[in-house]
Structure formats: structure tokens, C-alpha cells
Amino acid sequence: MNESSTPDTRSDPYLPHPDRLDASHPMFAAIMAAHDAAVAAGQPGYLDPGTGLYVMTAEHHIQREKCCHNGCRHCPYVGADH
Q: Which residues pair with 47 in a beta bridge?
């Protein structure tokens, strides 16, 4: 997987890369609703509606300005060119 400190070229970095969360996932809508609510509230993460695990938002990753290489669901740096 190619990750770097440069955001990838997806048209919306707030949508997870399909390698991390595909739109066909049965919980996709619920996950994205939780993500979007956290972003709107200015929270760095949310509790995954399926597992209860804490997940960092895309906004949090964008503010960090780099990839931590931990396979985060909402990492905006997945698929970056360099």
C-alpha cells in the first residue's frame, strides 16, 4: 500500500479509500453517519457502530498532516502518488 504525507487524489478525502471501507460494506451508511457527526462536532474520532472501537476521523488525519501507517479507516493519505 502506498502511503505518504501527501493526500491522495480522491475527490473527497472524507470518503474512506475502498481498501479501508468499501461502499458495499453492510455498515457503510451507519459508519459514515457516525464519522460525519464526529466531524461536525469537532471530535477527533467516533465509536464504530459495529464494533464499538474508537476510530479517528479523516479531519483528524488531515490536521495531523501525515500518515501514521497504522491502516486507519479514514486515512486521507492512502493511495498517494508519493
A: 54
